Amino acid sequence: MRVLVIGGDGYCGWATALHLSNRGYDVAILDSLVRRHWDLELCVETLTPIAPIKQRLQRWKDLTGKTIDLFIGDINNYSFLVDAMLQFQPDAIVHFGEQRSAPFSMIDREHAVMTQSNNVIGNLNLLYAMYEHFPNSHLVKLGTMGEYGTPNIDIEEGYITIEHNGRKDTLPYPKQPGSFYHLSKVHDSHNIHFACKIWGLRATDLNQGVVYGVLTDETGMDELLINRLDYDGVFGTALNRFCIQAAIGHPLTVYGKGGQTRGFLDIRDTVRCVELAIANPAEAGEFRVFNQFTELFSIGDLAAMVQKASASLGLKTEIDHLENPRVEKEEHYFNAKNTNLLSLGLQPHFLSDSLLDSLLNFAMKYRHRVDEQEILPKVKWKG
Ligand code: NAD
Ligand code: USQ
Asked: What's 12's domain CATH number?
């Protein structure tokens, strides 16, 4: 099967492209490399030094004998996107290629507009390219658990059955996203759902939780294949940040009360979930939604776990409660279903087993690269 990985130079995409290639899929990466550009603009760097994309791919070929094709360009450029797809002839398209930071999207009007136009128009171009040239291919799109927000009822996988005034229907689950980034994912989901309905496209929306870890079987093969690990206040996610903070002796930056609860998963499960979705495609006209996380934790729980694990390395870690730069609930009900991927055969990794190997050990190894100026959050939702 031929799989095009859009955003394959990024954190989830790189690990996924290598995993699929290793499992015998014919893989191509399409990426504009804009993420490397945003890092330069923000003056931040991944903790782990990542090699240029061509070097990464050459190393992969030298090690495994497998070639991953490369298309460098922006999916907002429709003719580039269509040319790349016609050349590669994908059976499945995995779409990771978006601006994915909530704080980045909240910097100012320009970044909000850029996030939404990059994400929503890119995704819409892809839907048209599929409709016009590859109507039978399967779109595996990365959505986010944050599309649902934090409702005071259980979160279903994409749809909810509601009885109202004596009538009953199954409808898209209500969305209450918490940033202009998360909103862009909601807009994408609506566009994909509509395209499946009118054109009969097949799509799986993977509503992914917060991903952690740096290690997969493939990225661990060689230093030149290492994945990115962001720790700065804009692109770094909570758990990755906490581990790096612990490694340099910085108090853990819990925002507000720390009762914010989210779904989490190991990057090794991200790559496996995508593989499961590709191997079991949606039907023609079906817009399928899987909630892609393996465990639920509050941010306070995570900080306590990192504190405990870092103590086993002889580190004394403090936990700080900073004034929350975001507008979000800090104590709330959160109970989301995640049975679809488990029933396809996902065997989850658990944080308690991987905190040291996949995170803290990397944080310790590369802690000399940390820029302490970039730890505290600088972007506020308001004011
Ligand atoms: P990332 O920033 O590391 O990678 C995204 C890649 O997409 C980058 O290499 C970037 O250059 C590329 N890209 C962006 N816009 C593009 C465009 N218009 N054309 C071509 N390439 C483009 O992000 P990530 O952490 O790997 O996230 C990948 C996807 O997974 C995103 O859609 C994100 O919303 C989703 N997701 C990520 C997480 C997480 O914790 N990292 C959690 C849930 C969902
Ligand atoms: N948080 C802290 N301290 C920090 C960083 C974050 O307390 O130092 C808190 C935030 O306030 C928030 C929670 O941790 O309540 C999660 O924040 P995050 O930065 O780890 O993740 P988020 O902004 O939600 O975004 C990340 C990815 C995004 C993906 C999303 C999945 O960047 O691409 O869509 O996780 S989810 O959270 O399920 O929406």
From this structure: 3.40.50.720
What domain range includes position 153? 2-374
Residue of the CA atom closest to atom 43 of ligand 1: 208
Mean pLDDT score, 282-293:
98
- Around ligand 2, the residues with Cβ closer than 6 Å are 100-102, 144-146, 209-210, 237-238, 241, 253-255, 260, 262-263, 299, 326, 328
Mean pLDDT of 132-144: 98
Residue 246 counted as domain residue: yes
Opening angle at CA 97, ends 96 and 98, nearest 5: 105
Distance 74 CA to ligand 1 centre (A): 13
Beta bridge mates, 287: 203
pLDDT over 90 (residue 104): yes
Is residue 379 assigned to a domain?
A: no
Residue 284 tokens read as: 């023609």
pLDDT of residue 174: 98
Q: How many domains does the chain have?
A: 1
**Residues written for the chain:** 383
Residue with tokens 């893989």: 27
Compute the distance from residue 169 Cα to the ligand 1 centre, in Å.
Answer: 34
Question: 106 lies in a domain?
Answer: yes
Per-residue H/E/C for 342-359: HHCCCCCCCHHHHHHHHH
Helix, strand, coil percentages, rounded to 5, for the chain: 45, 20, 35
pTM of the model: 0.98
163, part of any domain: yes
Report the catalytic residues: 144, 181, 185
Task: Please report the pLDDT score of residue 376 as a whole number.
Answer: 98
Question: Residues lining ligand 1, CB < 6 A?
Answer: 7, 9-13, 31-35, 74-76, 96-100, 118, 122, 142, 144, 208, 210-211, 237
